[in-house]
Amino acid sequence: MVRYTIYGWLYIMLGLLKRIGVLRWRVEGWENLPPRSMGGMIVATNHTDALDILVAGKLLPFAYRVAWLGKAELFKHPVAAWFFHKMHVIPVQRGKGDANALAAAEQALRAGEVLLIFPEGTRSRTGILNRGRSGAIRLALATNVPIVPVAIIGTQHGITGALQGLPITMRIGKPYRITPLGHRASPEQIHAATDDLMLRIAAMLPPEQHGYYAERMKR
What we know:
- With 219 residues, the protein is of the alpha/beta class.
- It has a single domain (2-218), classed as 3-Layer(aba) Sandwich (Glycerol-3-phosphate (1)-acyltransferase).
- The protein is built from eight helices and seven strands, in the order αββαβαβαβαβαβαα.
- Helix 3 links the parallel strand 3 and strand 4.
- Helix 4 crosses helix 5 (135-143).
- The protein is globular, with a radius of gyration of 17 Å.
- The chain starts with a helix and ends with a helix.
- 34% of the residues are buried.
């Protein structure tokens, strides 16, 4: 109930700012979203600023309310911990494999959650794509949920830029499922699948944001 209330206020406030022209946010590719009745799915997007979470939370339909993985440091204060738990944020110990976080993320997907994942693992301070990490692929393999690649453009200017009316676009790509890789996928297979996901995201970004994947995008 708390989560619905917070999301409701988010929709109302950001929707009002958008209606009066303060926020210039738009979506491309609505038709690519899998039906919500299909259950859990991974929304994988590039990550430039904390604003990306607000953008995804507002621009995706209300039925696609996202859960996401957040750094464990966010949960240090009791009030913040309460808030993030209510919003279905999964704490992650950064810098090392966090089996508990992956298990919690698997459980959320099996329960039908829309899980927002930033495959780069952290924000890109430059606005260009960093090398992707394998978490999204491993979760998709474990749960057989579809991955929805998404590109968010314009958040590199942060909340200040958004309130100044700088445009932000969220592009939703075609969903896909990871082909089963046998009983145990090899590191090479996981790496190739991760690169494939990142290239799908890069294809929706301007060339100057291709970053680590620029040379492969040229080919």
